[in-house]
Amino acid sequence: MNVRTIAVPEPKQYQGKPENQVVGRAKPKKPKKPKTGGKSAGALRRTAEGLDSRRVAIKALERITGAGSFANLVLGPLLDRSSLEGRDRALVTEMVYGTTRMQRALDHLIDQFLLDEVDHHTRSALRLGTYQIHFMNVPTFAAVDATVGASKKRVRGLVNAVLRKVADAPHDWPSDAVRLSYPDWIVDRLSADLGRTAALEALEAMNEAAITTTRDDGYVQDPASQEVVALLEAQPGELILDLCAAPGGKATGLAASGAFVVAGDLHAKRARLVRRNATSTGSVVAVLAADARSFPVREDCADAVLLDAPCSGLGSLRRRADARWRIDPDAPVRLGAIQRELLLAAAALVKPGGRLMYSVCTLTTAETTDVIKALDWPASAPVVRLPSTDSDGMWSQMFTRPQAGQRAV
Ligand SMILES: C[S@@+](CC[C@H](N)C(=O)[O-])C[C@H]1O[C@@H](n2cnc3c(N)ncnc32)[C@H](O)[C@@H]1O
Questions:
Q1: What pLDDT is attached to residue 46?
Q2: Which of 6-20, 51-65, 206-220 is predicted least confidently?
Q3: Which pairing describes strands 302-308 and 350-360: parallel, antiparallel, or unpaired?
Q4: Closest by alpha carbon to 78, among 54, 98, 44?
Q5: For all residues of the chain together, what is the average pLDDT?
Q6: What is the per-residue pLDDT for 407?
Q7: pLDDT tens track for 109-128
Q8: Cβ 245 under 6 angstroms from ligand 1
Q9: Is 193 contained in some domain?
Q10: Are residues 267 and 165 in the same domain?
Q11: Which long-range contacts (CB under 8 A, 24 or more apart) does 324-333 make?
Q12: 122 Cα: distance to centroid of ligand 1 (angstroms)
């Protein structure tokens, strides 16, 4: 059996791929187990549902890491094909998203007991078992028993042996990036832009599942996005352009004011999402598929323009469990250049005295303060919301177009 401790250095840039590495043990201290939201050990024992939920979770994890599938797209169909209901479906969702988020920390705990790399099925089972033991309130015997039972026969011995060792493994994290389970570049980028303490707090908050906030019209929307809509102070009868509108959360929020909202998105398929959401919330929104850089309205026409620009999404990572492993390190700078182009195109549509709101759900300097330098209009102070357990991170700033003849400052 391939179970043995070896000591090799931690890789420099972790991209979420299974690796056979790891560091030697430090002082043995039993890790603290974070809370799980009240699941009892009884719900997690080796019942038929307990085994089924681990089988579905392992299959989902295999597809996410093995086939590179998106976590949110994989899970729904697998759950629908299973016989799992309510509470068990919620448990699988928590296990799959949590294991995906924490995979770098989990691999660190696991790899000290692996000599050779293992296949995706085994890796998924080991991560799932380790997640239950170290990050959920599942007693070791229950986590090991159910995870081993849900693994393929040929690897049960290995999974059982490694999970038993992992249960006693100390949390001797070699870095904050391993402890919080992010690629190095994300920790480095946000630390450079926000300061180390704020960055680590934000990253820690984004390891928690997002809570659901529902508006009066039934639309689920994060408080940070609702705040951007409120800051724009749309008035009845105003013409408001939302240039990057899909799926339509902010457009429908703006329409509730009685303003006339024209919402566009580059991709027709995504523009249709806006229409669907407008219909389901009973909002009056004119929707079109269009590039914001050549929006088909005349210049200087809008009372207000919202540019909720495409961005790296580094402030909303808790919503997409696998995003941190997908985003490319060049994304902030690459997107910053596009955001500048979009900002100038959006500015051309605002009438004299009108408002322009720039917002992104990220906090990197390249996508925020560096972008808005392109516009010399009077502006309110930027609103910077760091990700917390209650809301996503969001950065927004409102500009006012100077009246004709008035100088910009
Ligand atoms: C952050 S999302 C917008 C979220 C939306 N405002 C909401 O609150 O529901 C950014 C959107 O910009 C769109 N997009 C990207 N490039 C664009 C472009 N050149 N013109 C218009 N839309 C674009 C993307 O398809 C994506 O739907």
A1: 57
A2: 6-20
A3: parallel
A4: 54
A5: 89
A6: 55
A7: 999 999 999 999 999 999 99
A8: yes
A9: no
A10: no
A11: 324/16, 324/101, 324/181, 324/182, 324/183, 324/186, 325/15, 325/16, 325/100, 325/103, 325/183, 327/186, 329/183, 329/185, 329/189, 332/189, 332/362, 332/364, 332/366, 332/367, 333/366
A12: 38
Residue type, 320: R
Residue 6: predicted pLDDT:
31
Judge whether residue 322 has pLDDT over 80.
yes
Residues 135 and 255 in one domain: no
pLDDT at 135: 95
159/229 same-domain check:
no
Ligand 1 contact via 267 beta carbon (within 6 Å): yes
Which atom of ligand 1 has the smallest separation from the CA of 253?
8
Instruction: Evaluate whether residue 269 is within a structural domain.
Output: yes
How many separate domains does the chain show?
2
Of ligand 1's atoms, which has the minimum distance to the CA of residue 360? Answer: 1
Which residue has its alpha carbon closest to ligand 1 atom 17?
Answer: 266
User: Ligand 1 centre and the CA of 267: distance in Å?
Assistant: 8
- Kindly state whether residues 109 and 236 are assigned to the same domain: no
User: Is residue 2 pLDDT above 60, yes or no?
Assistant: no
Cβ–ligand 1 contact at 265 (below 6 Å) = yes
pLDDT at 68: 86
Position 119 in a domain: yes
Distance CA(374)–CA(361), nearest Å, equals 19
Judged against a pLDDT cut of 70, whether residue 367 lies above it is answered with yes
In a domain? residue 70 = yes
Q: What does the pLDDT read at residue 185?
A: 98
Is residue 246 in contact with ligand 1, taking CB distance under 6 Å?
Answer: yes
Residue numbers of the domain that contains 104: 42-176
